[in-house]
Amino acid sequence: MAGTPTATRKEHYDLSLAVWTRQEENIARMKNVLRSSMNPMKDEGEDLTNIITKVVMPAEVQKDVCNQDDIGQQAYAKFVEEHIKQMRLASGPE
Fold this sequence. Notes:
The protein is 55% helix and 0% strand. By secondary structure, the chain is an all-alpha fold. The longest helix is centred in the last third of the chain and has 24 residues, at 68-91.
């Protein structure tokens, strides 16, 4: 019959040697690209860079990220002062 394949395939086409070889080559190329791209852990620059887009963050964002521990501690102390201690004073002596 016209349009009927003459041979029946017994395995999925992705398992063929040609496809498998091409996928392995693509994987090797992708690894090389990833290795050659900027490693954010080895970057010696002063600027904070977005890992995905490679865009340099504004100075204020860099400052906030670098000081996030101090900012968090200040926010915690403020919360305790405004909410926990104030609630104890408002409820009176125990």
